[in-house]
Automatic annotation (TrEMBL):
Organism: Pycnonotus jocosus
Residues in Deltex C-terminal domain copies: 4-95
Keywords, sorted A to Z: Cytoplasm, Ligase, Metal-binding, Transferase, Zinc, Zinc-finger
EC number: 2.3.2.27
GO biological process, one term: Notch signaling pathway
UniProt-annotated location(s): Cytoplasm
Reactions catalysed according to its record: S-ubiquitinyl-[E2 ubiquitin-conjugating enzyme]-L-cysteine + [acceptor protein]-L-lysine = [E2 ubiquitin-conjugating enzyme]-L-cysteine + N(6)-ubiquitinyl-[acceptor protein]-L-lysine
Protein name: E3 ubiquitin-protein ligase
Assigned GO CC terms: cytoplasm
Family: Belongs to the Deltex family.
Length: 98
């Protein structure tokens, strides 16, 4: 169960409002503990290291860190509609995105 923490900081060139402060947050995602899950975990780590996991968006005039375009499972239950399991296609879909 990887946990990502993004601190408060100032955005850089390429962000929606360069030089503006933004709020961070705690982000938690889940993967199954099996061969395919471990393979996806390695790809997600590479995406994180390349700055592809998160993005900065404006909400009510405040800049905040949010998940990027890579889909993450943020719950063990609730199904696909709630970013959870069961979702039999998730590992294939996220693997394609990565």
């Amino acid at each position: 169960q990887p946990l990502f923490k993004m601190s408060h900081s100032c955005s850089k060139v390429g962000h929606p409002h360069p030089g503006q402060p933004y709020k961070g947050g705690n982000f938690c995602a889940f993967l199954p503990d099996n061969h395919e899950g471990l393979k996806i975990a390695k790809l997600l780590k590479k995406a994180f290291e390349r700055g592809l996991t998160f993005q900065i968006k404006s909400y009510n005039g405040e800049e905040r860190v949010t998940w990027g375009l890579i889909p993450h499972k943020t719950s063990w239950d609730g199904g696909k509609a709630r970013n959870g399991y069961p979702d039999v296609q998730y590992l294939h879909e996220v693997g394609t995105v990565l």
